[in-house]
Known about the structure:
There is one protein chain. The chain is about 75% helix and about 0% strand. The chain is mostly helical. Helix 15 packs across helix 16.
Amino acid sequence: xxxxxxxxxxxxxxxxxxxxxxxxxxxxxxxxxxxxxxxxxxxxxxxxxxxxxxxxxxxxxxxxxxxxxxxxxxxxxxxxxxxxxxxxxxxxxxxxxxxxxxxxxxxxxxxxxxxxxxxxxxxxxxxxxxxxxxxxxxxxxxxxxxxxxxxxxxxxxxxxxxxxxxxxxxxxxxxxxxxxxxxxxxxxxxxxxxxxxxxxxxxxxxxxxxxxxxxxxxxxxxxxxxxxxxxxxxxxxxxxxxxxxxxxxxxxxxxxxxxxxxxxxxxxxxxxxxxxxxxxxxxxxxxxxxxxxxxxxxxxxxxxxxxxxxxxxxxxxxxxxxxxxxxxxxxxxxxxxxxxxxxxxxxxxxxxxxxxxxxxxxxxxxxxxxxxxxxxxxx
Length: 379
């Protein structure tokens, strides 16, 4: 089995991607969601490099025809959500965020065409003589699906850049650690933008029938996948080392002077007003930064007041209002036909697990137990 030098580079990049994906997934330092999103990105890039670098024979060709290894559509959402998770430790992937990954169906459909052909062949709906038509269909789809892939990644890179700009407007004077975080994210997005430009330069002749075969015969996919293998090394290692540097244990600081009672009382009153009157808790993506911007109060002050004077985290404080709103809806006859989960989403929860955990934490009961107890007391 002969492996060219370029294929070997790509395969080594794939192997490195698998190793880094495991390290990042198991890394307990830093933001666990950000680590796992970066691990997923490494796994996707590693699979794509493997599909290009692996030597072709009967078995590997069959595997590449049947198993979707090149999956592009989730890359953009992963980078965007990685940016959000890095900037906001309270960010979670709820149901609405998970919908961003549905376009991955476009990538899976490439192999889906082969599966449909095999099933049709097995059931007698088509014949072996028609294999050329099915191959042309698959190859044509394989070529055109790169267009939404490139557009999707470009779109989400733009969203990520905008999220960083919003964060900088809300926090014009970041700490040293936050500034390091921003520099890393800026560099990451700029490198990806450079790759997007390279992909576009490759994609234009690739989409033109008169140039495609000449392009692939002369250089293959190497102009894309050798840089992609380099990206695996750079992003994976920098991302892993970034968590170690950003979140390494800090030396214990001297206690800060106590804040004035008046400032604490005012902050608590305005927080309660924002929940009771403005009902900010209904925003499923509410963060301490958004509340701070709404009230004109520094997010750090909000967190400190809640932690030190109420003994609660920001999420726990918000979820108490969401649970109270849900309790009212559960007992309201107007909502008898609604599902508990649907009402929970209406009250600002963004996932079933978060809602169940918060409800039990506040009431000591599950929602069903709460309903049963209330109905029993009414009898």
